[in-house]
Amino acid sequence: QVQLVESGGGLVQPGGSLRLSCVFSGLILDSYVFGWFRQAPGKEREGISYISSSGDGRTYYDRFTISRDNAKNTVYLQMNSLKPEDTGIYYCAVGVHSSWWPYEYTYWGQGTQVTVSS
Question: In a designed cystine with 39, which of 1, 17, 45, 78 is the match (CB 3.0 to 4.6 A)?
Answer without folding.
Answer: 45
